[in-house]
């Protein structure tokens, strides 16, 4: 399965974990809230799940890239 990861900017607390670990994939916007970098390559599935699980606010959402369904990151 291939995953897609998104930032829910409404609940992001700007911890910076995603930005620090994958600066080629995430950055801070003008309000210091994490966002995806347009055109960035996808992360490997294992890195996607690990990063989403480590987000302190749960702002990193993971989806099945084909179906668009959200993935239960703690159930996989």
UniProtKB/TrEMBL annotation:
Check the UniProt entry and state the signal peptide residues, or none: none
Q: Which SUPFAM superfamilies match?
A: 4Fe-4S ferredoxins
Q: Which Pfam families match?
A: Fer4_15
- What does this protein need as cofactor? [3Fe-4S] cluster
**Residue ranges crossing the lipid bilayer per the database entry:** none
InterPro entries to which the protein is assigned, alphabetical: Fe-S_cluster_ET (IPR051269)
Q: From which domain of life does this come?
A: Bacteria
Keywords for this entry?
3Fe-4S, Electron transport, Iron, Iron-sulfur, Metal-binding, Transport
Return the protein name: Ferredoxin
Species this chain originates from: Actinomycetospora rhizophila
- Lineage per the UniProt record: Bacteria, Bacillati, Actinomycetota, Actinomycetes, Pseudonocardiales
